[in-house]
Amino acid sequence: MGKLLSGHHCIAQFYVLGFNRKSIYDYTPTEKKYILWAVAFGTIVGTFPMNVLYVRFGARIAFFSAGVLSAVTTAFTPWAASQSMWYLVALRFLQGVAYSADFAAIGVVISKWAPLDETAVFISTLTSFTSISSIITNGVSGVICESEWGWKWSFYFHAAACLFVFVTWAMVYRDDPSFHKSVSAKELGKIQKNKSESHIRDDMKIPYTKIFTSPVVITVWLCAFTELSTLILIATYAPIYFRSVLGFDIKLIGFYLGIMLAIHLPFRFVCAFLSDKTKCISEITKIHIFNTLSVGFVGISFIVFSQIPREHNISAVVCLAILECFTSFNCGGFYKCGTLHARQFSSIVISAIQFTKCISLFSGPALVAFFVSDESNQTQWSHVFLTLAGFTFLANILSFVFFTDQPAKWTEEGGAVKYSKKKDIVKI
């Protein structure tokens, strides 16, 4: 999505550019924590207000507004950093508020534009923005920071690019495909096939209580939380674990982590294609298989990873790469279940997944702080991995009890339709 060109990743440049130790940009570990956590707090605070904006104004205006906020805060980041650490924290908080719009936009686009039989492909493509943005932003920032322009121009460049992308979004995107001049009746029929009239019209009052108390939706969020907790723990602590426990040279750590990311992305699209195009088994069976691979097998991989000794450290890299590949199946697992079940309200379900992602930014470090006092002690780290693995197993078991591929009763008010060009419903 549009955030792939925002400044969320640029802030890391402050920590690697080699400023003089007395520089105002030389932050203490505590200050770095505040700067990084400000985004998480902003996302938590912004998630539900953003959903209100999406409901009231539609994704076109709401997401564009979030993009403008992201561009402005990114452009002012160098100035804020030169003034005060707390100015920078405030801007990072606002970037978090802008970031909270991403998953809601994904949910709206899938609900409005994705044919039901291409749900996994849409989910896989749209949820890849974090990985893609990391690759692009870190690469571009590195080049700019090493140039004569200096690190500040990295922020200015990303701000300008972000604004350009979101202006393009506002010009191209329409909240309803039936009102898009480039969508033919045939294409619209494919988009709306087997969707209810209520889904297409999307004029129902949002049943927040039913959504937030649905066992299916709660289980989707639990699965998402456990899987995202493992990924964030890896992203945050893998360099430390690789160096302190597995004995890797620090120069090789980034290389190995880059390989894992490179393998993960293409595999994700393969998984989405298999989820949507495999017709020999039922949809709910596919959801259970894909969810077990993306949640349950991630837990198994974590257990194996925690037991690999230092002398077999390459095996640990392979194990972690396999774990990353297993997460690629989530597009056909809990994401797909939540989308198919909530239908026109899937933006609420998916945006709440982003909320759980922010919570995991705190739960992971809390587990490490509780269990790990010596970063070179593999046994202490294994307690963290085993705890997370246990939660993934619990979530996976509950998914077999509650998951479904059917729309919830609170999404239905009409029959299935073929297409509804300009709101002329044609029932089948």
TrEMBL record:
Topology in membrane: Multi-pass membrane protein
Transmembrane stretches, start-end: 34-54, 61-80, 86-109, 121-141, 153-172, 211-240, 252-275, 287-308, 314-335, 347-372, 384-403
Domain named Major facilitator superfamily (MFS) profile: residues: 1-407
Keyword Membrane part of the UniProt annotation: yes
SUPFAM superfamilies attached to this UniProt entry: MFS general substrate transporter
Molecular-function GO term, any one: transmembrane transporter activity
Location in or out of the cell: Membrane
Pfam families, A to Z: MFS_1
GO terms for cellular component: membrane
Keywords assigned: Membrane, Transmembrane, Transmembrane helix
Primary localization: membrane
Protein name per UniProt: MFS domain-containing protein
Protein species of origin: Caenorhabditis tropicalis
